[in-house]
Write the structure tokens for this entry.
Amino acid sequence: MSTSIMSRTTGLTAARAAHSQRRGPACASSPEVFQDVLVEDPPRGAMTRADRDRQTRLVGQARAICEACPLRTACLYDAVVRHDVAGFVAGTTVRQRNEIRRRLGIVVENEDLDTLAGVIGGTRQIDHDEVLRLRRANPDETLEQLAHRLGCSLSTVKRHLRRERQEPTVRRTVTRPMPVQVLQVTAAVVSGSATARRAA
């Protein structure tokens, strides 16, 4: 292929990717597929033949949409490495993503969005890391506001922040896999799932 054709092709691919990123992921334009209960949260028990056929069709559509999406790699990486998301994401199911994480040795903790949003309160033990995380997430808030979000006293927040200044918490370094590693393991898991389905 000549250099001018390659540069035009590369330019077109980059332009398509940029256009797609402006519009968002391909799944956003197909909520009827991705938000269907048979795709997003399939039932655990027995399904009727009609539901099973419909689920197979919808998952096939979802997988095709994901495969064609230029954001698939980034979406897959985030769904496997950074966030524990529900539903069908980047061509994978929740079960497949859990298997990918297991094979890569990744542990993704559920995010405590209630605490960050200030929903949790009442009488409970306040976790030191929770105070620090909330402080980092809301650096412009007063300590009184943080105490209110945590449902504790101002003195409790001050005590935790003082403790951190005196004895800083040692942060462990998390080594994340490279995107290519996630893609390789995903290919093995998804192909293994397809083989198991055909055998059944």
